[in-house]
Amino acid sequence: MAGVTALTFAALCLPLLGAVVAPFLVRAFGASAAWLLALAPLLAFAHFASLLPAISAGKVITGGYAWVPSFDLRFSWLLDGLSLTFALLITGIGTLIVLYAGGYLKGHRDQGRFFSFIFLFMGAMLGLVVSDSLLMLFVFWELTSITSFLLIGFDHERDAARRAALQALVVTGGGGLLLLAGLLLIWSTTNATQLSTLLQSGDLLRANPYYLPILILVLGGAFTKSAQFPFHFWLPNAMEAPAPVSAYLHSATMVKAGVYLLMRLNPVMGGTPAWELLLPLFGGATLIIGTLLAIRQTDLKLQLAYTTVSSLGLLVLLTGFGSPYAVEAAALYLVAHSFFKGALFLVAGIIDHETGARDITRLGGLRKAMPLTFAAALAAAISMGGLPPFFGFLAKEEIYAALAHGDPRSIVFTLVAVSGNALMFAIGFAVTLKPFLGSVLETPKHPHEAPPLLWAGPVVLALLGLIGAVFSATFHHYISSPAASAIRGSSSVIEISLIPQVCVPLLLSALTIALGILVYWRIDQARRMMAVVLGKLGPGPDRWFDDFIAGLVSLSVRVTRFVQPGRLELYITCTFLCVATILLVPLWLYGEMPALPVWPREVQIHEWAIFLLAVLGLLSVVIARDRLTAIVSLGIQGFSVAIIFLLFGAPDLSFTQFMVETLSVVILALVMTRLRLSPTDRRPLGQKILDGSIAMACGCGFALLLMKATQAPFNNALTEFFNTHSKSIAHGANVVNVIIVDFRGTDTLGEIAVVAITGLAILALIRVRAQTERKLAENDPDAPEDLGVERP
Questions:
Q1: What sequence ranges are listed for the domain MrpA C-terminal/MbhE (predicted)?
Q2: CB neighbour class for 314 (10 Å; exposed up to 12, middle 13-18, buried from 19)
Q3: What DSSP line would sit under 332-344, residue for residue?
Q4: Among candidates 170, 23, 90, 681, which has minimal Cα distance to 335?
Q5: Closest alpha carbon to 486 in 319, 324, 271, 264
Q6: CA-CA distance, 529 to 295, in Å (whole number)?
Q7: Helices (DSSP H) in 248-385: which residue ranges?
Q8: C-alpha–C-alpha distance, residues 746 and 740, integer Å
Q9: Residue 372 in contact with residue 346, Cβ under 8 Å?
Q10: What interhelical angle do 111-130 and 134-152 show, nearest 10?
Q11: Which regions in the chain score pLDDT beneath 70?
């Protein structure tokens, strides 16, 4: 087991290693570096594939390393049928994507940076699906959002790419905050920090009084990440990313993170009325809306993007439907969709790369020029349409077997599934047949077959869809059945094969194909009709997002102008008002006012003199007619305190106080002289009363707090500690010096840093003053007037 743990940790680190070395390898070997870089995900894939026999036998592999043991926080992983399936998809398709990107971005100046981003995303996604720790799951969840932001905005010189990246980050990041709240609620109500512990808790979470808030928060995270209605708009906009990103993030991996989360939590959160209502409802709506919006598009990638939204909706519908067959159908469709949609996205990238066009109305007759690409596209489209002998056929049959029942709920969702699948059938074949068949149309580039690095990916994925169906028994044993078992939380055996059975699912498949052919035949009319309908409906969520961001920016500007008007006296007033409130309110609210001190019976004449000196200094500050006199008088207070320290046995502290007060008075006097501010206080009487009241409140607050502290029973534990250890540990007999220099060395360093920063601020003020005087001497109209300088 130790060997498996070490190898698993190494497999998880391989993509991160690839991110580090990618720029150097690309600089050294150019596009050929893709072959070397592809070894990282390939080795990780080989390791995870080696675990298939154990996982298919029903084992669950866990491992990891303690991070914060006192809080039971671990960097841990959980490998079962579901997480292993995702890990194989991420690393397997990731290998093909790395090779594809080597050819697609050949000669690109930022190819090394692209590889680093794609490997960082691969590592984040891999960490997400294998994490056992709830905290690590959230960390990797957010890392996928950040790395996808970098990938979507890879071509950052284009406004559309930057907008799409920001939109994806805002939507998925906002959902991530909802998920964090949900995970914290799960943690606090179940005391489970690991998924493996949570999955063994039975109905503990379902019976939790906070179940509904937890469900809503978790769905918020999952729906935003997996582009469920009404958060579906960010995924099509993300097609501004290069084709390798679209094929990897937005068909096979990242957008399925939300689906993975729902599948993972199904054993402990599924089966409730809320679960079986919300998931099918939003999933079904997403399925229909995505396909209808796909019909409207003419861009190959946008058509595929909207059908990806639809497929994600279908997966959410199946996950929440609540029957064993639905879970099995979700497991099958999860894999089938990764195969055929990944292949089609790569084909769309090849067409764009080799012809310079993606508009379906400007493409035609590419079959002879690109025969391998056409073959891969046709195979993927057959699987997407649910036709034999491809894996998509098995998934579609299982979907109808799960949904086709006699109750009204099943009938409604069966009709939704048939309608959505029929539209996806039409769009899949439109994407495949329209560009390759018909008359040859002129394109910006002369079309020709792509190099091996580009066509290898779609060919392999299309072949996997065929092999998985032909050898379905073996595939189910190692992949589908373990994944379905993990989603259900109990043993599940999938037995569907290519041999059709004359029953309701087969009849529904025939109906789906017939409707799909009809829509494909009239797809131009359907596109125009959808354009009219969408035009009448007005702006959708995409426009609402722009309005929301504009409103948020406007609100932030207003709030900033209100709380940050640029007036220093207002900032100081608010600060000291808060200090006075913090000091006085708790003392009064909780009945902690100190007892009045008892005046000592005997006070020495020199002690009276010190207190009288302090009072005279205070009066001098108040009645001073110019600022310089007030500053000098203010130093009298500090000197009085220093003398008190001296009289009561603290000469070191007294010396420090003398030095601080002297330096403060000298520096302030020099600065005030250099700035030449108004010599007198010009504040109106009302402002003086307000400022004086706040000052007195702060002074009283500190005095009352100190009196309350001194009236508490004295604990001499620290005194004994410092007296005992100052000599032996710090080798100093002066306890005060030892405390300042050694025991509180970091605090002293912080105080020195504060003094240094203050000095830099003073220097900046003086320099600004000199620049202002120079501008005024030159009669510069842009010179500021807020430094007490009058124009000549």
A1: 689-767
A2: buried
A3: HHHHHHHHHHHHH
A4: 90
A5: 264
A6: 9
A7: 257-269, 273-296, 300-321, 324-355, 371-384
A8: 9
A9: no
A10: 160
A11: 1-4, 71-72, 252, 600-601, 672-681, 769-770, 772-773, 775-792
HEC string of 578-591? HHHHHHHHHHHHCC
The DSSP code sequence of 647-701 is HTT-HHHHHHHHHHHHHHHHHHHHHHHHHT--SS----HHHHHHHHHHHHHHHHH
Question: If you ran DSSP here, which 8-state letter would residue 311 be given?
Answer: H
pLDDT value at residue 427: 93
- Side chain identity, residue 374: F
| Token pair belonging to 481 | 């059945």
* Beta carbons of 131 and 140 less than 8 angstroms apart: yes
In whole angstroms, how far apart are CA 745 and each of 21, 671, 737? Answer: 41, 30, 10
CB 199 within 8 A of CB 489: yes
The span from the first CA to the last CA of the chain, in angstroms, equals: 84
Q: What pLDDT is recorded for position 789?
A: 43
- Residues 429-446 pLDDT 10s: 999 998 998 888 888 888
Distance (Å, whole) CA 277 – CA 697? 58
**Four-point Cα dihedral 335, 341, 343, 348, nearest 10:** -170
Q: In degrees to the nearest 10, what's the CA dihedral of 203, 205, 206, 209?
A: 130
Q: Where are the domains of the chain?
A: 294-521, 744-792
pLDDT at 4: 66
Place of tokens 């007999």: 733
Q: Which residue in the block uniquely carries the two structure tokens 């005992």?
A: 724
Helix (H, G, I), strand (E, B) or coil at 59: coil
Q: What is the pLDDT of residues 529-548, one digit of tens each?
A: 888 888 888 777 888 888 88
Cα-Cα-Cα-Cα torsion 252, 444, 106, 381, nearest 10 degrees, comes to 20
Residue 354's contacts (CB-CB under 8 Å, 6 or more residues apart) are: 370, 445, 447, 448, 449, 450
Please provide the average confidence, as pLDDT, over all residues in the chain.
86
Residues 451-481 pLDDT 10s: 888 989 999 999 999 999 999 999 999 999 9
C-alpha to C-alpha distance for 70 and 118, rounded to whole angstroms = 35
